[in-house]
Amino acid sequence: MATGGGGGGGGGGGGASKYLTDLPSRGLFSSTVVSSNPGGLRVYLCDHETSPPDDQLIKTNQTNILIRSLTLNKQKAESGSKDVKGKATTENAKGKRAAESPIDGRGSAKKSNSVSNPRTAFQDGSSSRTPQKDFQHLTVERLRSFLKERGLPTKGRKDELVARLRADKVAREEQRKEE
Predict the structure, then answer these.
(1) How do residues 57-75 score in pLDDT, each as one tens digit?
(2) Residue 146 above 70 pLDDT?
(3) DSSP H helical segments within 38-179, as ranges?
(4) What confidence tens digit (pLDDT) does each residue in 88-114 have?
(5) Which of 27, 28, 29 is nearest to 19 (CA)?
(6) Where in the sequence does UniProt note compositional bias of the Gly residues kind (predicted)?
(7) At 136, is the secondary structure helix, strand, or coil?
(8) What is the pLDDT, as a whole number, of residue 22?
(9) CA–CA separation, 26 vs 31, rounded Å?
(10) Distance separating alpha carbons of residues 174 and 166, to the nearest angstrom
(11) Distances 4 to 10, 12, 21, 122, 157 between C-alpha atoms, Å
(12) How far apart are CA 71 and CA 61, in angstroms?
């Protein structure tokens, strides 16, 4: 194909520059004058005062952005790996969870800590039979059945269900004290 004047470009010279004449650009396509600073930043001159007020104090962090980003990511990873109970740590990150140990420090076989018949203990409402930590060891299914018996909402995560049961238990104990 010839690159003469009557090609498929629509007549007229300049190629694509004729379509870009009125558009803002850095001068690479539409400018016929060679720039003294090709590919560089444009220089703008301000016609007003640009210095900050005297009382303005600007503090900058002199730490390298890469180092700052790495330390922030490390802090996020450390804080994210610590659970409320401190179960998961970065040393124990092989895919297995650590067994939840009792607060008082003594080990227990299977669920000997839990109440033998949690249904009667919950209905009784005595705090000596069902310590508050026993709610945490119950299954979600059992927690939901307790909530259903009490006419409370059964939706939510396990910790929300436990909190709802504990709040109901406290309310029942206060009601019993008033009577």
Answers:
(1) 888 888 899 999 999 999 9
(2) yes
(3) 65-81, 118-124, 132-137, 140-150, 158-178
(4) 444 555 566 766 655 555 554 454 444
(5) 29
(6) 1-16
(7) helix
(8) 73
(9) 8
(10) 12
(11) 12, 10, 21, 95, 75
(12) 14
